[in-house]
Each structure stands twice: as structure tokens, then as C-alpha cells.
């Protein structure tokens, strides 16, 4: 039988079926509740005050009953029988609502749940009438069904009446008679906290005197303590099946109802609301299920309500569910903004995670976003934050650090904001190249020229400044000029010429040597922006994959350089040599020159080698004009006889100069260098083409020629400056303490002797006044021939040209001293950056050629007390330090085979071990080790294993640690597993005994009885009471 139609939606909506008590069902009639159910005393008359309140509650209930099942007139008559003042006020309000409802002709069926009313009311508030900007209710439109004529005041009065009725009833609303506060007992339904998670469970048995065993919705039995309990539902006798029903009802609750309830609460409550009152507003019901669903909704809600302070009534609050305070409209608005921001951040994090996953799963770099796309896309902020961490940017703020940390953690790339982790992620997703020069970037060295400097360089090219030395500049374009550089050189800052002098009657009167030096000071004034930029960079940085120029490339590789076939401004040093190789009347002039022959070292070596072998008729060709020498890949293809003759004369002059300096006591260090080359386009390849080649001026006639001519120019400028007392950046070096001549003579010539001399050399210095340079055996020396790539040479050019013009010097002695001191510090920093880059690429070269063997020569002890010796890789020209096994005797010059044992390009670390000796006095015994090492390598090569030197003490310690770790790692778990299995067997016996005891006596064993048989352990789960 359906319920009668009603007219007051706020009072007539029954419970939804999901929250209705199991015993309630669909009743055909509503039995009046006895007076004692509303606060009266059983067996005695209540006091007048209590009776008046109880009467009000009683008649309010009858008003509610008649509204559900009778007419409006009957409801008003039922409420009018009250006699107390409080009840009279409630009756008047009820009568007003009944009249308003009668005049509106509203209808509602008995099957419409309370939730339907809340949703309908929300639709009316926001649809027909809606809420204003302040969130207050506005009258609904008349077209809204069921609530068209209800005014805001009437609805609020209706809800206020209901709250008063619930508060006076002590928690019983419509259909809630079964919900009475309970305590912890068997059959109680409680919610407890476990691992910061709320769990609903029914208590099934005590666990000692205070604790309990509880079963949750999964059927799992858990021990809990009273401190864990946060909410006790009223009533008792619950079963395990009720837990799942309550949880299911709570999970299906509509959280959107909280907003409407909050709007009602802030208008009607006027203070904290208890759980039963909120359940009444939500569901018109305070049954245990309704209370639990309301409780869970309030726990999930973070916007509209907040828990009221419990104070000293914490236990009562746990039983009653606590009280809640509706937040103000301002608080809700602020929280909503925060939640919207948090939601936006969550979506952004999900998008970032998805983008990284897509980049990681890409099969090629082309399928990944480019570095520019990452930087300019929606994740630009995260990329910049990660780069700041990866490059160890100084003064990184906390916001950037936190953003980088969250970016790493979201994609599982690290738990800390560390540079290596950030760099690895950026490389993985394509935001950095695989071989990005992080060593330079982490030192704050810019790889690219700033945009403002590029713009200033473009302005210089568009409007060249006037030449301050135009009147002094000599035209030397009639001279044949050679430039000899590496094939990769783009900044050509020096060239050579030979001028043959004629005496009386056409007889040869000797030669004059010209060293032409690029003249960037013709374009850059001291103190200009570009000059200050060069002062900051100090010099060009040379790296395996290219260079970082001191000036913008469009200037350094353009008008600054001595370009082939073009007339270029230069500073030309003119010298004549005496017969013994000493200087005679040097001078320096601004000039204009034209480069005729642009040669590489290999091409010049080929020409000189051909002359030495007699090709091209050698010196006869030079003297008679017959013959020529072909030059492969040269700009002109063939050097004519005159050019070959000039090149040969320059070579002979260089030899004479070296003989002169050797006679004066110069110290030559004949150690080769390792030239590492990597194509710039390969920096993002997984396997770049890395090459390491050996270069040495003692092995290359053209390199020796150029080096000697540059020293000659530096001596000439130093002599001019010393004679004129000019403050220039003079380079000097104190005399070293060399080994005894007998010790040096015992060493093989070449690298071994050069290694011994290098260990004795002192550091050079730069000052404004001339001092002797011991290694070069010169009384005054100024580096002058590289002004495009070295700022100290620029300083020398500025002062020397100002002296030639008769102008004031731009740099005083004190300024030069301070500039060179700063340049020394910066130069050491650049040198360290170059070494780090070289170490990285050496390690990468070894990684790419893993398994290769490297013929080497022993140079000598590096640190004999640590068994560390220096070796020279003969093909690569690379000097490495290797630990020599104890008891191994060798001499400098002995040859061996080295192999890498460990390589880490990220840190630039590599380590070699001696695979075997191939020459020297220990040849017989090491030959056996070579065989063993060779067989070991043959076994290891198929699986790519790392070769191990078992004679190395570090290796022995590592192996001992591995053995101990293996024994402990396997033995401890085996012992623990055996112990646990035996204990589990004992526990099964105790459980069987416990169940038998219960079957015989009806009681389980106590903890003391169990402890006498088996002592408790910290690993026990406290599950003695029938855990099956």
C-alpha cells in the first residue's frame, strides 16, 4: 500500500531504499510512537520542563505522521494539541507551512526519497530561482514542479523546524528508533584507522581485556585497539554481511548533495551540527546506515564542513559521530580556488607523465619532440627547472627545485633533485643531446655567443669603424703568404712570408722573415662591449667537437682571420737572423697582406717530405726554378717552385732557430699530444664517430716550423717592448730543478725523457715587465700571434699599436698585472673544463671500442709508493696512469699491452690494467701472463665481460666482499625460513589445542596459558581466537 500524497517536500520525503533499515520496509500504516520514546521517564511522570519539550517532540512527530498519511487539516490539528510555549511556537510554524503548502497545490509521492528532494531543491535553487552571488537561496520559479510556490523563508523555516525536532528528540527522526548509542561489544559496528585508512568492521570477539578482533568487508580478521576506533555506530547485533552493505551504500553516496546541505546549514543551523542532524538534512533519517553514509560523506568532504573541536568529550564524540561546523562562504570560495588549482596541477602532472612515457617509448629520436619543442611547449617550465638542476645552476630557488623534484618523481626518474638524475631524464626524452657538454655548462660556460654580442658584430660588419692605423699600415700584398693550420681550424690568425733581399749588382743579401698576425684590434676598441666580452672569456675554448670562440664567429672567422685570396689587415713582425740564429733588427708594423697558400699540417708535411726525399729536385729545384710539388686537396693543387723554395727556406730558418735556443739552454719536452675529434653533428648519436690520433711537433716538420716561427715573433715583440720599456704581458718561467744529466742520459730519447723533464717544470707567469723564460731560453717573450683566440695577445696589440702611433697606452702596468691575474684564474677554469671534456670523450672512445687492446710504452713512475706508473698509448698519443702489480719490474721505454677494466663516460673515468708485457728485461716471465690474459680475454669476449686483474689489491678486497655478501645474503634467509617453518608447525599445534579446549569447555585458552606453552614473539599477529 503506497503512502498518501504529501505537500511539504522537506518533511514528507522517506528514506531511500538503500539506506532504509532492514526491518522498515514499506509500511501500510504508521504506528504512533509512545510518549516515553520521546524523552519521558518509564514508570514516573516527567518534570514539567521535560514534559513540555517532549510534548512538543511528540506532536511534531504526529504532525509529521499526518502529513505523510493524512490530510493537511489533520496535520495542523495534531500539532495544535500542544500546551507548552515551545511547542506552541513549533505548532505555529507548522501551521504556517501547512497553509503555504496547501495553497501551492504541491504533490509528492510516498516513494520519492529524501535525496530526490535535495536534488530537486538544488535544481530549483540554481535553475528556477538559483543562488545569488553570495550563495543564498532565491525563490524558485513557478514552473518548477513540486517546489514552484515555496518561498525561501518557508523552506528555511521548514528545515529549522526539522533540526529543532531532531535536537529535542535526542537523535530519533523518522524511522530511526533502532539507533541507540552503543559501546565496544561483540556485534558492534565500528570504524577504525589502519595505515591512515578508515576501515569499517564488526567486532566478533575480545582480544584480551581491552582489545578486540574485528572482521572487515573482505572477511579478514584483524586485532584492533580502542585507540584505533574513530566511530561507533549505534545499536548492536550486527553481522559480517552488514559491513559490506554499509560500505556499498557509502561508496554510492552522491557527494553533490553536500553543497545543498551546506547552504541549508549556514542559513538554519547557527552553530555546529551533530552527525544525526546532518543525516536528517540529507536523508530525513538517523538509522545507523544513514549515519554511517553521512559520516563517510563528511570524511570525504574537504570543502563545506569541518569537524568541530571535541574537547573533553572525545569518547562521546566517537560514539555520536562528532559535530561539524559549516564553513563560511568566504572559506568555501577560497578552498574551491585551492582545489581547482590542485586539480589543474593534477591534470598537468598526468599530462607530463603521459608525455614522458610517449617520449620513452619512441623508437627513434625523430619520433621524440625536439629540444626546442620541449622548451616552448606546455612543459617548458618543467624542462627549464630540470635543466637548472642538471646544470647545477647557482642560486636555484626552492620553487624551481620542487618543480624539478616533482617532475622526476612523477615519472620514476629519481627520488631526489640530483644533477645526474635530471640530466639522464632530459637526455632520455630528447630535451638534451645524448652527449651534451654538461661539463662546460655546469661550470657556467656558455657554448653560444649571446644575442646582443651577435647583433653588435653584425653592426660592425655593416658599418666598419675607421682604421686608427691607416697612416702607418704598410702594403705587403706583394709577399707570398703561407698559412699552415689543422684541417678543422676556422680562426686563422697567423701566416708566414719569406722576403729575399738583393745586394749590390743583384747578389743575394740574405732573407727577411715575416710573421703576419691577424689584427682584430683594428675593429675592436678597448673598453667596448665586445672587448669586455673577450676579456670575460679570456680565450677560445677548444673541444673535441669544435670550439667556443672568444668573439662572435662572424667576426672571428670573417674579417679578423687571414682568409685565403683576400686582402686582410694584419700586424706584421719582420726579423732578420744572424748566422747563429739570433735576432737582428726586429720591427713590427700594421700591414695589409694577401694569403696565397692555405695549407694544412699534413699538406705541408707532404711537401717537406717530398723535398727531403729528393722529389721535385729538392734544393736544386728551389735554386734553378725547375720542378714543382703537388699538394693533395690543396686550394691550388700544385705549389710552384718559388713557393716550395720559400717553404724550404722557412724550414731551414726554423731549424737554425731551434739550434740557437738549444745552445742557449732551452728545455724541450718531446711528448706527443692526443688529438680527439668528434663531429658536432654526432653529439646526439648513440654511437658517435670518435677518433683519437697522435700528433707531435717532433714528428711533424710543419708543426715544428710553425711553433718555432711563433716563438720567434714573441721574442721579437718582447725585445721591442723591453727596449722601449713598454708595459706588455711578458711571459716568464723560473728555472726548474732538472734531474742529473746522467739520469736523463740513461732514459731513452723521446717521450720517456720528456716525461721526466715535464715533472720538473715550474708554472709560467705573466707580468708587465720582461723576465727570463727558462724553458724557451729567452730574456723577453710576449705571446703575440693569437689575438683572435687569446685576450692577452689583444692587450699586447693594443699597447704596441698605441706606442707606434704615439698615443697614450690603453693599459698601464698595474692594469696588465690585474688583468693577467684574473686571466690566470679564468684560464685554469677553462683548462679544467677542457680536460673534463677530453676525459669524457676518451671514456666514450674506450666504451665504443670495448675489448680492444692498446700498445703502450712505460714512461716512468707517477707515484711509486702507490704502484702507479705513467704509460703512453702509442697509437693515440694519450698519457694514462696504471696500477702496476706488486713485484713487477719495468724500465722506462718498456712496451706492454693495456686494456680498459672500467669505463664511465658520465664522470670521465676510465681505468686500464696491464694485460701483458711485450718488451723489456721482464719479457720471459710476463710472456706467460700475456698468454693467460689472452686466453682470459678470448673467453670473455663472447659475453662482453669485464677483464679482471686479480693481482690488484682493490680487486682482491672487492672479491672478498662479494664472497662474504653472497654467504650472508643466502645463509641468513635460509636460516630464517627454516626457523619460521618450524615455528609455524608449533603454531598449528597450538591452534588445534585451542579449538579442542573451546569444544570441551566453551572457552578459549587465555594468553597466559598459551604463553606457558609458547612464548609470544614480536612477529605474532595476535590471532589465537579461532583464526580459521
From TrEMBL:
Residues 473-806 form the RNB domain. Residues 1-72, 130-154 are annotated as: Disordered. SUPFAM superfamilies: Nucleic acid-binding proteins (SSF50249). Residues 134-151 have a biased composition (Low complexity). Residues 1-10, 44-55 have a biased composition (Polar residues). GO terms for biological process: mRNA catabolic process. Coiled coil: none annotated. Residues 58-70 have a biased composition (Basic residues). InterPro entries: HTH_RNase_II, NA-bd_OB-fold, RNase_II/R, RNase_II_barrel, RNR_Ribonuclease, WH_RNase_II. One of its GO terms (cellular component) is P-body. One of its GO terms (molecular function) is RNA binding. Pfam families: CSD_RNase_II (PF23163), HTH_RNase_II (PF23161), RNB (PF00773), WHD_RNase_II (PF25255). PANTHER family: RIBONUCLEASE, RIBONUCLEASE II, CHLOROPLASTIC_MITOCHONDRIAL. This is RNB domain-containing protein. It comes from Volvox carteri f. nagariensis.
